[in-house]
């Protein structure tokens, strides 16, 4: 069975959920093999192996890890040349998409970005599914040339532990051109930690919209009682009430948690595009005609400043 390369997204060796999703998807197409850039491949081999990777290609050279995306694209092209994989999967992050585009050019391959599903195509190759125009159309495509390069949207594929033990780590002798090293990373600063899970990886997300009037305290209190991440509508972030990085929707992040709570959010199509695949959706809105109620599992018609504190109190009481 041909290998399927998965570029590992990690923070100082901690593998992100998007990589586990990509490994799960890769197992449908062939034999998943992880490509780990930077220090920490050995430490990550267990989690990568448990999620299906048989091999971890470790690229520790500072020439790759300390530069921007270009060297990673070159190393992936080198691995595609050496191993002829069935596909290369990357996360649909800004870096992931830029690396994917460079890789596709270097290997004369077809590229699909923001896929929400992958499967073996009839007659060979890889079939991808994209959800476009705010989720109103589903596009199915098959890459017709080269080694399919696919970026996967976060939270599109449920993570499965498809593997056995730890993956075998294999060092890669990276050949990086001078041109690829033109831009070097000089400093990395970690954002002040909020203590909440990351928005794209959280099992529960509580989001606030214009209906909060800028007061996110009840949204944050409910989120904290549930161990949830906090999201926001574009109206809320455009008003400066919450950081842009928290925007859920077509032009923000896509989330697909077990539970999504929308408080004071009307349910515009652009917002839905980023949360409609959540497993259970709850909305609190004082307008019974709000469009968000068309897609909810549970709807509460009421003032969020009354409903959210009551819910928070009850959750805290039950947790003891
Ligand atoms: C190209 C494009 C891209 C976009 N991308 C995004 C995107 O990524 N994400 C996104 O969210 N939007 C996006 N938008 C904007 C989107 O169209 C909506 O304008 C936006 O989602 C509205 O945000 P909202 O629901 O918070 O505000 P509103 O639509 O104003 O809704 C506020 C809701 O709060 C309710 N409410 C008010 N007070 C209370 C209260 N006290 N208690 C309970 N309910 C209350 C109201 O009944 C109302 O339903 C995009 C728009 C365009 C054109």
TrEMBL record:
<dbReference type="Pfam" id="PF00766">
    <property type="entry name" value="ETF_alpha"/>
</dbReference>
<comment type="function">
    <text>The electron transfer flavoprotein serves as a specific electron acceptor for other dehydrogenases. It transfers the electrons to the main respiratory chain via ETF-ubiquinone oxidoreductase (ETF dehydrogenase).</text>
</comment>
<dbReference type="InterPro" id="IPR014729">
    <property type="entry name" value="Rossmann-like_a/b/a_fold"/>
</dbReference>
<dbReference type="InterPro" id="IPR014730">
    <property type="entry name" value="ETF_a/b_N"/>
</dbReference>
<keyword id="KW-0285">Flavoprotein</keyword>
<dbReference type="InterPro" id="IPR018206">
    <property type="entry name" value="ETF_asu_C_CS"/>
</dbReference>
<keyword id="KW-0813">Transport</keyword>
<dbReference type="Pfam" id="PF01012">
    <property type="entry name" value="ETF"/>
</dbReference>
<keyword id="KW-0249">Electron transport</keyword>
<comment type="subunit">
    <text>Heterodimer of an alpha and a beta subunit.</text>
</comment>
<dbReference type="InterPro" id="IPR001308">
    <property type="entry name" value="ETF_a/FixB"/>
</dbReference>
<protein>
    <submittedName>
        <fullName>Electron transfer flavoprotein subunit alpha</fullName>
    </submittedName>
</protein>
<comment type="similarity">
    <text>Belongs to the ETF alpha-subunit/FixB family.</text>
</comment>
<dbReference type="InterPro" id="IPR014731">
    <property type="entry name" value="ETF_asu_C"/>
</dbReference>
<dbReference type="InterPro" id="IPR033947">
    <property type="entry name" value="ETF_alpha_N"/>
</dbReference>
<dbReference type="InterPro" id="IPR029035">
    <property type="entry name" value="DHS-like_NAD/FAD-binding_dom"/>
</dbReference>
<feature type="domain" description="Electron transfer flavoprotein alpha/beta-subunit N-terminal">
    <location>
        <begin position="4"/>
        <end position="189"/>
    </location>
</feature>
<keyword id="KW-0274">FAD</keyword>
